[in-house]
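Researcher: Good morning. I'm working through a list of sequences from a screen, and I'd like to move beyond sequence-only analysis. For each chain I'm collecting a predicted structure so we can compare shapes side by side. This is the next one on the list. No need for commentary yet; just the structure.
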Amino acid sequence: MVFHPLDLAAVLAASGHERSLGWCHTHHVAMPGPERPEGARVATVQPKAWDGAGVRVLDLAP
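Model: Good morning. Structure tokens for this chain:
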């Protein structure tokens, strides 16, 4: 598991968004980019919260 710091690009991506800062930061990190061409996978126990977000999800629900 890798933790990514909240950088300026993530804050700007979250600016004015109706979702929480945590969701926006996770979405920003999970999207494809130069450092992660395929994007990061979102590990969550609530995979339905990511429906339609366009990110890869790792379902950790029991």
